[in-house]
């Protein structure tokens, strides 16, 4: 009886692991393919093949990479382009705070794992019910996405000349679209949705009047503005 129970538990565990791997690979492959769009867009903005590949290898956060090359392509200064990309990438630090507790990786592994703390790995990892499943999801998503993203970045940069005008294809929208698709289900409260809506309004509304890269920086003001307004509203409600 004990042996049968152990076999049943092992079978259930094996099925659960396969489900995690399947989901993680699905995310890794689907998002990794958009690295081709980044490679083409980056090459079209004037970056060299080496610079384009270095961004994917070292930065490895799609939305920030697209923001950087998009600002450069629009004529923005390297400083504002890098600053906008930096502020978009800051979100990964907050993912890291949660994932470090959930994964509880050995200290020697953490600096390497930090490279894979992005939207996609966070989404897959946080969806898992156990630490074992979370670690497996993080590993498979991070590994598959890192390899495929960098490979398709290289192919995209090499094929940029054959593609021609990247603006006509709208490839620069691929990365932000993936980011928004992952972000949308996480906006569960009214405050979170208000921050997102105000950030969009600031970012898009200021595009015609400010240099490239600056609207992204100012969109970051959405969070403190909404939190301040929400705190004031609650304070007035408590006073009544």
Automatic annotation (TrEMBL):
Subcellular location(s) of the protein: Cell membrane
Cited InterPro entries: Brnchd-chn_aa_trnsp_permease (IPR011606)
Main localization of the protein described in the UniProt heading: membrane
Pfam entry (one): AzlC
UniProt topology in membrane: Multi-pass membrane protein
Membrane-spanning parts: 24-41, 136-157, 169-187, 194-227
Keyword Ribosomal protein: no
Keywords linked to the UniProt accession: Cell membrane, Membrane, Transmembrane, Transmembrane helix, Transport
Protein family per UniProt: Belongs to the AzlC family.
Protein name, per record: AzlC family ABC transporter permease
Organism encoding this protein: Streptomyces tibetensis
């Amino acid at each position: 009886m004990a042996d049968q129970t152990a076999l049943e538990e092992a079978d259930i565990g094996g099925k659960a692991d396969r489900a995690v791997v399947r989901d993680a690979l699905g995310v890794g492959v689907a998002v990794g393919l958009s690295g081709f769009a980044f490679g083409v867009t980056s090459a079209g903005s004037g970056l060299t093949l080496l610079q384009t590949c270095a961004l994917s290898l070292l930065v490895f956060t799609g939305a920030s990479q697209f923001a950087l090359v998009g600002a450069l392509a629009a004529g923005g200064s390297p400083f504002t382009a890098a600053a906008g990309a930096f502020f978009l990438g800051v979100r990964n630090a907050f993912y890291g705070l949660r994932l470090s507790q959930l994964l509880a990786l050995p200290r020697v592994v953490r600096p390497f794992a930090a490279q894979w703390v992005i939207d996609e790995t966070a989404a897959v990892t946080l969806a898992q019910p156990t630490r074992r499943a979370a670690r497996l999801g993080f590993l498979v998503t991070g590994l598959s996405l890192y390899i495929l993203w960098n490979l398709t970045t290289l192919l995209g940069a090499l094929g940029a000349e054959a593609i021609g005008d990247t603006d006509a294809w709208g490839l620069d929208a691929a990365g932000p679209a993936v980011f928004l698709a992952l972000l949308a289900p996480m906006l569960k409260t009214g405050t979170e949705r208000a921050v997102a809506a105000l950030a969009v309004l600031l970012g898009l509304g200021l595009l015609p009047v400010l240099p490239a890269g600056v609207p992204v920086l100012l969109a970051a003001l959405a969070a403190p503005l909404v939190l301040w307004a929400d705190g004031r509203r609650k304070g007035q409600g408590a006073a009544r």
